Amino acid sequence: MMIGTWRLIVTLQPERRWRVLFKCSMMPDGALNSGNVEDQELIDLIEELNKTTDEEARKKLVKQAVSVIEANTLQSYIIHPNIVVGVNDRVKNWEPGSEEYYMLNNELEVE
């Protein structure tokens, strides 16, 4: 992740940009937390941010959260490969993976 780019975005418009990075990608139950990030210091900052209404205090919390992300090299992935594959029960000896294109081999069978 290019944290420098995120720093620019979240500090210029923290009210609009912090949710995807923090709430969705950096919380243990976040919908986009495919990196399984779980950092208690960061969790505490995000929870405090969610309760804070003062704009200047929120900006300060956003900057602190970004510092924690940088210091601990936490990763948030831009691409989330949630691939759904339907395979007929008649197909044998083949398991779908996360590839976009599948390579079929001579062991694949269709009954």
Strands, helices and their partners?
Elements: H1 3-12, H2 14-24, H3 40-51, H4 55-71, E1 91-92, E2 109-110
Antiparallel strand pairs: 1-2
Question: How is this structure best described in words?
Answer:
It is a single chain. By secondary structure, the chain is mainly α. It has helices at about 5-10, 15-25, 40-50, 55-70; strands at about 90, 110. The chain has a two-stranded antiparallel sheet. Helix 1 (about 5-10) crosses helix 2 (about 15-25), helix 2 packs across helix 4 and helix 3 (about 40-50) packs antiparallel against helix 4 (about 55-70).
Question: Briefly, what is this?
Answer:
This protein is mainly alpha-helical and 111 residues long.
What are the main properties of this structure?
single chain; 111 residues; mainly alpha; two-stranded antiparallel ribbon; 4 helices
Order of helices and strands: HHHHEE
Instruction: Classify the secondary structure makeup into a structural class.
Output: mainly alpha
Total helical segments: 4
Please state roughly what percent of the residues sit in beta strands, choosing from under 5%, 5-15%, 15-25%, 25-35%, 35-45% or over 45%: under 5%
* Low-pLDDT sequence parts: 1-12
Euclidean distance between termini CA atoms: 45 Å
The largest beta-sheet arranges its strands as 1-2
Number of strands: 2
Largest sheet report: 2 strands, antiparallel
Give the oligomeric state of the chains in this entry, treating copies of one chain as homo and distinct chains as hetero: single chain
- Radius of gyration over C-alpha positions, nearest whole angstrom: 20 Å
How much is the average pLDDT?
A: 76
Shape: rod-shaped
Helix content: 40-55%
